[in-house]
């Protein structure tokens, strides 16, 4: 079985060492035996299960969303965190501390739309529709990021520069609240249109009426959208 050192393996290592030229016989027998033991121990260390560090060698799989969840992902919008790449339309896995680092360490992702029109402006919205949980989303939509006046030329390379109406807030689902969807919606900004939040909206991130916001500023349907799912890293 893979991962175990057979007697044949150690026997082969021993035979190879004994087959050295006789010129090596000048080495004291004690030293020769120590070398022989060292060869056997190295072989054993390399073949034993977990000897190479299971955490570093284990493959960390980003599971794709179900068919119903994938329906939200349209327009080839990419959400890129430097350590893991594009997380669009996937679950954030717990392995390698990815959920913890997403909630505590990582800053805003690069959001990229390869086909964005260079001279047009766009509005980026990031929300959690599952606050405090998906069964009773009383605080839908929780606003995590809102940026307007993003030039298409910047959007093509994933550079989100514009007027920040809501600073990026890391995904931090509550314990035992299950998976949360973190949705990114990209709208084309109408020409010569200034977009803002009301004082009431600025005071609260939760229970945001996204539909009214879109209608008030004539944003229409998103030109692209995507989402990823994650839950509390301690769950």
UniProtKB/TrEMBL annotation:
InterPro entries per UniProt: PEBP, PEBP-like_sf, PEBP_euk, Phosphatidylethanolamine-bd_CS
Q: Which domain of life is it from?
A: Eukaryota
Family of this protein: Belongs to the phosphatidylethanolamine-binding protein family.
Protein name per UniProt: Phosphatidylethanolamine binding protein 4
What organism is listed for this UniProt entry? Taeniopygia guttata
Gene from which this protein is expressed: PEBP4
